[in-house]
Amino acid sequence: MPSLITTLPQLTPRKPDSHKGDFGRVLLIGGSRDMPGSISLSGMACLRSGAGLVTVATAFPAQPTVAGFEPSYMTAALPADTDGRVALGAIEELRELIAKATVVACGPGLGQSAELTQLVATLYREVALPMVIDADALNAIAARQTAAASESILNDHAGPRILTPHPGEFARLLVASGGRKPPVPDATSPSPSDRLSAATHFATAANITLVLKGHQTVIADRDRQAINRTGNPGMATGGCGDILTGVIAALVAQHLDPFDAAHLGVHLHGLAGDLAAADLGQVSLIASDLLKYLPAAFQQHAKGERGA
């Protein structure tokens, strides 16, 4: 039976002679002509969460906009299809970028197409580095799983995988893999422990770490479980999930294992949201506000914050 973890992990204190290479190289893949902001939020969150070097690889029509959001990350312009989304022909360039990375995150703002379904499935299967899979990359995995019919691709991966679905995305993944569609959390939703059981079953079958987002987000792999207690309804707004992708990727880059990175990342993400809501209110909170409060969340945790 997996263990319920209630103590949060800690990042190792930085040595005086540290350099940026000590804190990992994150490659973020996402963005499209119509959705450049999502992957930019991920990139900025990754930097605010301590990654040493961050590269955002995006469709070339989106690259100037993505680059304009933040000068502290690098960008790579990828071949695009006629609708301004990353094309399948980008696979070789991505392999070159992945060879220089410590961790890869994929999905925010990517869009959906048959080519992207094939591209994401190829990366999911062959990349040996840890990968954070979110947003449209989750939809691509579900679409590829559906197309594969009896062949399971969810557990066909070369390295650690962290999947971060919201309930709707989790439902699509379950249905695609032949499972039962779960209830979507609402006023009549099952308890967090019921959702944790479903997440643990899925994570164990696929040999992944699963972050099932929502009120009291649950985190599970085949050995450990956690229920998050931070966060508030003000975070129910576009872009907050993209921030979480960047936070978790940065923590993996700083040598936390996938479960610990997901557990701590969800806590800090929610804590930043709580700090933002305390100052700004829940109604007016937007995703980019979390970027401003992530430093305070990290500081509060470093001072001895414990528990989930």
What this model shows, in words?
The chain is an alpha/beta fold. 43% of the residues lie in helices and 13% in strands. It is built from ten helices and ten strands. The protein has helices at residues 37-48, 63-69, 91-98, 114-126, 135-148, 167-176, 192-206, 240-253, 258-280, 287-302; strands at 3-4, 25-29, 53-59, 74-78, 103-106, 131-133, 161-163, 209-212, 218-220, 224-227. The protein has a ten-stranded mixed beta sheet with strand order 1-10-9-8-7-6-5-2-3-4, sandwiched between helices. Strand 3 (53-59), helix 2 and strand 4 (74-78) form a beta-alpha-beta unit.
Keywords:
308 residues, alpha/beta, ten-stranded mixed β-sheet
The helix fraction, in percent, is: 40-55%
The largest sheet, given as strand count, sense and whether it forms a barrel, is: 10 strands, mixed
Radius of gyration: 18 Å
**Helix/strand/pairing category:** alpha/beta
- What is the residue-averaged pLDDT? 93
Classify the beta-strand content into a percent band. 5-15%
Enumerate the spans where pLDDT stays under 50 for 5 or more consecutive residues.
182-188
SSE arrangement, N to C: EEHEHEHEHEHEHHEEEHHH
Number of helices: 10
Number of beta-strand segments: 10
Q: How are the strands of the largest sheet arranged?
A: 1-10-9-8-7-6-5-2-3-4
**Overall geometry:** globular
Distance between the termini: 20 Å
